[in-house]
Write a sequence for this structure.
């Protein structure tokens, strides 16, 4: 096993003291260390938001791109070199708001990568507006009278769109979260880890104590079977006095890379030699 | 020398396009140079479609002017196109469909195409092949070439289908013998003995991308760029590459940046609406210095506009689209052959300068076919991005300041090369520096600094037609090159002092070469297929010169005559001793 410190980036996190994203960062570093993946073979891609600053704080390759657009870039990078361990990170606004179109299609595409969403139910970086996961009737800076829309359900959405590993963690329980992330990275296919990651500055409702009172682990229920899609869907809608965290669903399905003939040799596209001579054969068709 | 324009018109979806395509291939294989032009409806089924092919023993520069032979499958086609047929030209029409009114200046041959197909072949659909037979019989086209073509085309559908089509061809040829001839059009075999490819601009571009080493394409369907994706989806797997169809154009360019960042050359192609969506990502590629090739096959805008018609309306967007101070390279492709070499150059520029390169084509160029000498990829040596060497890895700085402003780019997987590709303003290491004011200036200078070398290359890539130091100059860009060249030839033949310059790189502009060309001119015309004169506007920022604009904005390309007429008009002013003032012309 590698040391966690090997994955610590040169930049110090700029998050507010107590921000849930610290727990996510620590858990991810722990998961990578436990899996012993060399930092130069890891790529962390993000969008824009407080949470999206995460790649800077990890020692690996990183890509800090556009708000809502981490998944297309991560997909392209994975398809260009599928030997890399690709992890996309970001916030709920980034992934479920502006980027939700990409989220839907990335789920069904089943490229082998991990998506970690730091879900704080608020827009943190822009200082406190409603996000797609803000609960109904909650007052924020952009909804002084309370939100009108229903909150989006990330777990149910991922399940219905074909994600093959769907989990939810809580950044108040790093050991549990690290195990979910490990499972996600090891899983062959598109894995979502939605994380309750409280914004201590702008979300005064969904706080650490609020979650501690409510969350329970699916693993603690002997009856729960993450291979059961119907059960997973049912649990995805449990919200209120009790909120489940843990692994909701996991299934094996061929990945996009498995099904793409150009990658069958196993050699990443970026490492494949160019066969220029074959151009002549292609041109034959046009004479 | 043979030089004829054939046009086929009829109901879309009834084989008009395939008749035109087969005629084109047959003429090309028979040794003629060809140049096609197609108009087709935005609807899939129905609506009027036409396909034009010009065939000549000489190099062809434009779609041609008047039509020599019109094949009209229905009355609408006849009504629409008869005005374009030259006096003495031939009209062949399906007399089962309508009867053409006697027409003074043209020669009409009525042929019962439908009943010949139903009665003598037994399949109504073969009326297109019967028409091809009539053309072959009348104009002395090599019958063996047509037969070979039909075997190639229908071979996969089985021997019966091949035999039926060969029969249809013979029925047409036999019928042609009974026609009382009043025209003198004869083609025989063409002069070219070597084999050439018949490619559309889009096909040529896609082949060039492969030659440049592109093995990953991400795209979203949009007319008139879709066939680039379809071509590559078919061809790339044969040589170890592949295509992904993404959920939208933002994802397409995002995947291209991801793949390029990961070390593989990648491309996307789109048209106006998709290109508009890509502008934010293009800015990211500039900031993070990621090589990327973005093709825009322009169509008529704004908004959805006229999806199947041509325009040069996206130049502003290509040069200035997106926010901030955002240098990127903009190129335009000039003709079908140039699509092959031009896209190779685009990949080279992207790799060398680590920035996005926008390549402008258009519907007129992307969808027309031409005979092209078998492309030779070794004419454009392939360039790869600068990678960190030896000691550069010891203390790796992704955005290190260098004399030519190009920094070594490591590839994920390289030990010690880890960095963050950063869209926030950043320092040499790629660390965010969103509050360092002086650093922002240095980085902006770094990104624009690359333009010095790009401009030098731009100066090498201009082409001049006609006189290099003319009295009347023409500045053109993109797909108008051939038409301008032909207009210049027409004007020179009339004794005018005319020349044209055609830059390949439009941003940054080849200022030295343009200045040299413009010195001593009495007037400079800038023809563009757009309303406001976008290139003229860019050049006005660079030169205090009273350019004369010639704009066409009806979704169709220029004809050589339109440009020639403008030259004559301007020449009359110049020679009349009048000051040429653009505002008055
Ligand atoms: C296209 C675009 N629109 C808006 C913004 C401004 N913006 C930056 S981050 C953000 C939302 C952040 O919320 P979230 O993604 O949930 O991340 P958090 O800051 O809460 O971690 C917005 C709206 C932007 N950068 N780009
Ligand atoms: S604003 Fe909220 S999300 Fe952003 S760093 Fe502070 S606590 Fe975290």
């Amino acid at each position: 096993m590698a040391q966690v410190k090997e994955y610590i980036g040169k930049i110090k996190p700029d998050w507010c003291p107590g921000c849930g994203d610290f727990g996510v960062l620590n858990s991810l570093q722990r998961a990578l260390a436990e899996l012993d993946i060399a930092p130069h073979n890891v790529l962390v891609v993000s969008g824009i938001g407080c949470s999206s600053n995460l790649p800077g704080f990890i020692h690996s390759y990183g890509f800090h791109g556009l708000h809502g657009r981490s998944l297309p870039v991560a997909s392209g990078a994975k398809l260009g070199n599928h030997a890399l361990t690709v992890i996309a990170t970001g916030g709920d606004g980034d992934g479920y708001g502006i980027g939700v179109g990409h989220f839907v299609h990335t789920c069904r595409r089943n490229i082998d990568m991990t998506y970690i969403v730091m879900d704080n139910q608020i827009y943190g970086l822009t200082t406190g507006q409603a996000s797609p996961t803000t609960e109904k009737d909650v007052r924020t800076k952009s909804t002084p009278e309370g939100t009108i829309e229903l909150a989006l359900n990330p777990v149910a959405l991922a399940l219905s769109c074909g994600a093959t590993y769907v989990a939810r963690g809580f950044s108040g329980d790093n050991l549990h979260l690290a195990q979910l992330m490990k499972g996600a990275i090891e899983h062959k296919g598109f894995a979502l880890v939605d994380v309750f990651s409280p914004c201590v500055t702008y979300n005064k409702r969904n706080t650490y104590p609020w979650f501690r009172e409510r969350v329970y682990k699916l693993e603690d229920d002997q009856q729960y079977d993450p291979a059961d899609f119907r059960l997973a869907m049912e649990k995805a809608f449990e919200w209120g006095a009790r909120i489940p965290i843990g692994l909701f669903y996991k299934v094996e399905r061929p990945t996009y890379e498995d099904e793409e003939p150009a990658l069958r040799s196993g050699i990443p596209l970026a490492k494949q030699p160019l066969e220029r001579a074959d151009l002549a054969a292609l041109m034959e068709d046009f004479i | 020398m043979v030089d004829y324009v054939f046009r086929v018109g009829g109901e879309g979806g009834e084989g008009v396009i395939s008749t035109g395509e087969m005629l084109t291939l047959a003429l090309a294989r028979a040794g003629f140079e060809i140049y096609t032009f197609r108009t087709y409806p935005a609807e899939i089924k129905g609506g009027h479609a036409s396909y034009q092919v010009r065939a000549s023993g000489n190099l062809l520069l434009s779609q041609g002017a008047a039509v020599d032979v019109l094949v009209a499958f229905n009355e609408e086609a006849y009504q629409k196109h008869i005005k374009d047929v030259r006096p003495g030209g031939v009209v062949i029409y399906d007399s089962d469909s309508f009867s053409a009114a006697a027409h003074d200046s043209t020669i009409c041959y009525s042929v019962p195409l439908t009943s010949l197909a139903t009665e003598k072949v037994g399949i109504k659909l073969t009326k297109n092949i019967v028409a091809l037979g009539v053309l072959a019989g009348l104009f002395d086209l090599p019958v063996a070439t047509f037969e070979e073509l039909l075997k190639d085309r229908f071979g996969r559908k089985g021997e019966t289908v091949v035999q039926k089509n060969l029969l249809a061809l013979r029925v047409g040829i036999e019928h042609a013998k009974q026609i009382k001839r009043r025209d003198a059009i004869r083609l025989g075999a063409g002069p070219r003995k070597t084999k050439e490819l018949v490619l559309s601009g889009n096909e040529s571009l896609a082949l060039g991308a492969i030659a440049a080493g592109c093995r990953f394409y991400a795209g979203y369907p949009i007319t008139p760029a879709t066939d680039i994706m379809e071509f590559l989806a078919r061809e790339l797997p044969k040589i170890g590459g592949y295509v992904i169809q993404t959920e939208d154009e933002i994802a397409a360019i995002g995947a291209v940046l991801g793949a390029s960042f990961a070390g593989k050359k990648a491309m996307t192609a789109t048209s106006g609406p998709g290109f508009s969506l890509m502008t934010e990502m293009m800015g990211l590629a500039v900031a993070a210095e990621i090589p990327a090739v973005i093709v825009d096959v322009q169509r008529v805008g704004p908004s959805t506009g006229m999806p199947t018609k041509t325009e040069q309306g996206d130049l502003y967007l290509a040069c200035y689209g997106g926010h901030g101070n955002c240098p990127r390279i903009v190129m335009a492709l000039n003709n079908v052959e140039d699509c092959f070499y031009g896209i190779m150059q685009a990949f080279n520029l992207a790799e060398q300068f680590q920035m996005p390169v926008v390549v402008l084509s258009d519907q007129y160029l992307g969808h027309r076919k031409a005979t092209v000498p078998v492309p030779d990829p070794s004419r454009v040596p392939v360039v790869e991005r600068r990678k960190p060497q030896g000691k550069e890895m010891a203390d790796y700085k992704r955005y290190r300041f260098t004399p030519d402003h190009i920094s070594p780019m490591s590839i994920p997987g390289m030990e010690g090369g880890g960095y963050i590709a950063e869209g926030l303003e950043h320092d040499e290491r790629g660390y965010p520096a969103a509050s360092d004011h002086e650093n922002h200036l240095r980085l902006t200078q770094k990104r624009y600094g690359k333009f010095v070398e790009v401009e030098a290359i731009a100066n090498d890539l201009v082409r001049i037609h006609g006189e290099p130091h003319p009295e009347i100059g023409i500045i053109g860009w993109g797909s108008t090159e051939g038409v301008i060249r032909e207009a210049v030839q027409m004007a020179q033949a009339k004794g005018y002092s005319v020349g044209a310059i055609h830059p390949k790189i439009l941003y940054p502009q080849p200022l030295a070469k343009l200045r040299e060309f413009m010195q001593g001119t009495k007037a400079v015309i800038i023809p563009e297929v757009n309303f406001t004169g976008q290139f003229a506007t860019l050049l006005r920022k660079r030169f205090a010169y009273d350019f004369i604009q010639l704009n066409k904005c009806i979704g169709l390309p220029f004809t050589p005559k339109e440009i020639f007429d403008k030259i004559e008009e301007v020449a009359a002013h110049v020679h009349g001793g009048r000051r040429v003032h653009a505002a008055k012309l």
